[in-house]
Specification:
The complex is a heterodimer of chains A (308) and B (108). Chain A has helices at residues 12-23, 58-71, 119-124, 133-136, 152-161, 181-189, 286-307, and strands at residues 2-8, 29-31, 45-46, 56-57, 75-77, 83-85, 91-95, 98-107, 111-113, 129-130, 144-148, 167-171, 193-196, 199-207, 211-219, 225-229, 232-235, 239-241, 272-274. Chain A has 308 residues and is an alpha/beta fold. Chain A contains seven helices and 19 strands. Chain A has two domains: 2-112 and 239-307, FAD/NAD(P)-binding domain, CATH 3.50.50.60; 115-235, FAD/NAD(P)-binding domain. In chain A, strands 1, 2, 5, 6, 7, 8 and 19 form a seven-stranded mixed sheet that branches. Chain A has a five-stranded parallel sheet with strand order 10-17-11-12-13. In chain A, strands 14-15-16 form a three-stranded antiparallel sheet. Chain B has 108 residues and is of the alpha/beta class. Chain B has a single domain (5-99), classed as Glutaredoxin (3-Layer(aba) Sandwich). Helices cover 36% and strands 27% of the residues of chain B. Chain B contains four helices and five strands. The model of chain B has no long low-confidence stretch (mean pLDDT 92). The chains are: A alpha/beta (308), B alpha/beta (108). The A-B interface holds A 34-37, 40-44, 58-59, 62, 78, 80, 96, 125-128, 130, 134-136, 138-140, 208-211, 232 and B 30, 32-35, 37-38, 41-42, 61, 68, 72-76, 78, 92-96, 98.
């Protein structure tokens, strides 16, 4: 099945690209991936998206984005792209065995939470280790939790978790936080939150049956380790772009973000465009992602016009 | 699409899930969980396709905390596969349909 535009990813960037491409009569096909709606579906209140003076729930907002794109002819599929071939024209996109071809591709695969890189963390993800306080906090009523990270999102997660947990320790590798003043203030005022300074988690102990039992924490100044009991570990140490499909195919920066050029959404392959968090490690906002999704659709439209 | 998806609760969990003659796929979810909503259509499709061979149902963790605690749920969506009253497999998080059906086939 050949398409003018195939969009990979369904966060604010992908669905805005779908809206604009739909309105340009390009009949776009969106592969929603394994997190339809993207990172906003694991948040609660979105208070900084213009047009919603009372705020809006993340999942609800993404439903609205999807409906608006569908209204103008975008087709959305709950499928995960497994392979691409961008070396020949038309571009090829596979979902397992099924092949789709596109005259242009818009990449909006977004970013995922960064992990510590421990075996035990992989084993216990979903069993006491989490990257999503809004999803999993509920299961830690009156428990003791560790929140790893020193930025705004770590403060936000810790403060949110005080709704459930009885005691929260922020684990931060330095002696000061990166978080904004206002978030630090909120955190410091909260009697349930304390900080392990100059600390990194070296190991998480527990099992899938019993959950997390304790962590081994290393003091970054002395190198000494100690055990700290806890019932859960929440990670808020940043994000990494979802680029595994495009390794060795597109130019990326040293952190793996797709490089776009000339102030547009063009990538190193003409006809392939990137928008949203997969190419932006600076702003990472719903509204900037949506803006770049619009740009990608317009860039794709221009590209298709020039080619024909 | 939801026609074949049962509603499991604290009250009927024993009779509907643990005593079931056929394997059961249980989807732990909540109203406030975005990824749970994302996976719901997939669970509905599986319920239709496996109708008669696998029983498929959902547990709302807000209303059935005891069940969620009993099975150590610490993240949702969590999909548990029961056979003859015991858990034979489980998946945490939103995954593709194939990953679920693969485990169901093992349970059959």
């Amino acid at each position: 099945m050949n398409r003018k535009v195939i969009i990979i990813g369904s966060g604010p960037a992908g669905l805005t690209a779908a809206l604009y491409a739909g309105r340009a009569n390009l009949n776009p096909l969106v592969f929603e991936g394994n997190q339809p709606g993207g990172q906003l579906t694991i948040t609660t209140d979105v208070e900084n998206y213009p047009g919603f003076p009372e705020g809006v729930q993340g999942p609800e907002m993404m439903d609205l984005f999807r409906k608006q794109a569908q209204r103008f002819g975008a087709e959305t599929q709950l499928k995960n792209v497994t392979k691409v071939d961008l070396s020949k024209y038309p571009f090829k996109v596979w979902v397992n065995q099924d092949l789709f071809t596109g005259e242009s591709i818009i990449i909006s695969t977004g970013a995922s939470a960064r992990m510590l890189g421990l075996e035990s963390e992989k084993e216990l993800m979903g069993y006491g280790v989490s990257t999503c306080a809004t999803c999993d906090g509920y299961f830690f009523q009156n428990k003791k939790l560790m929140v790893v990270g020193g930025g705004d999102s770590a403060m936000e997660e810790a403060i949110f978790l005080t709704k459930f947990a009885s005691e929260i320790w922020i684990v931060h590798r330095r002696d000061q936080l990166r978080a904004s003043k206002i978030m630090q203030d909120r955190m410091e005022k909260n009697p349930k939150i304390q900080v392990h300074w100059n600390s990194v988690i070296q190991e998480i102990k527990g099992s899938r049956e019993s959950g997390v039992k304790e962590v081994i924490v290393e003091d970054t100044l002395t190198g000494k380790t100690r055990e700290e009991s806890c019932d859960g570990v929440f990670l808020a140490i940043g994000h990494i772009p979802n680029v595994s499909l495009f390794k060795d195919i597109l130019n990326m920066d040293k952190n793996g973000y797709i490089i776009t050029k000339d102030g547009r959404t063009s990538t190193s392959i003409p006809g392939v465009f990137a928008c949203g968090d997969v190419q932006d490690h600076v702003y990472r906002q719903a509204v900037t992602a949506a803006g770049s999704g619009c740009q990608a659709a317009i860039d794709a439209e221009h590209y298709l016009e020039e080619k024909s | 699409m939801e026609d074949n998806v049962f509603e499991f609760t604290e009250k009927n969990f024993n009779s509907e899930v643990l005593q079931s003659d056929i394997p059961v796929l249980v989807d732990f979810w909540a109203e406030w969980c975005g990824p749970c909503k994302a996976i719901a259509p997939t669970v509905g499709e599986i319920a239709d396709e496996y109708n008669g061979t696998v029983k498929v149902g959902k547990v709302n963790v807000d209303n059935n905390q005891k069940v969620a605690m009993e099975y150590g749920i610490r993240s949702i969506p969590s999909l548990l596969i029961f056979k003859d009253g015991t858990i034979v497999n489980q998946i945490v998080g939103s995954v593709e349909k194939d990953s679920i059906t693969k485990l169901l086939k093992e349970a059959l």
